[in-house]
Amino acid sequence: MNTVSPCVLVFSEVFYKWWRASVDDTPRELMLVNHTMMGIPLQPGSHVVRLWLRPTSLWIGTALSGVGLLLSLALLLV
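The chain above was modelled as a monomer; its predicted structure follows.
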């Protein structure tokens, strides 16, 4: 991303709390824009902006599934 003045980069993605962002490899907070989308303020210059998902629910679901699988295997062995 290259900008000549301060701006807000708006993503056409729905804002969820598990989105993470970095600008030039520095973690940054995303802001709510237009009631549903997300944005990130940028200073003038050339930047590398990265977005990724870090959903807590996925890790909780995976852990619960693993526990359920272990319990099922224990019951089969007994």
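The CA atoms of residues 19 and 32 lie 11 Å apart.
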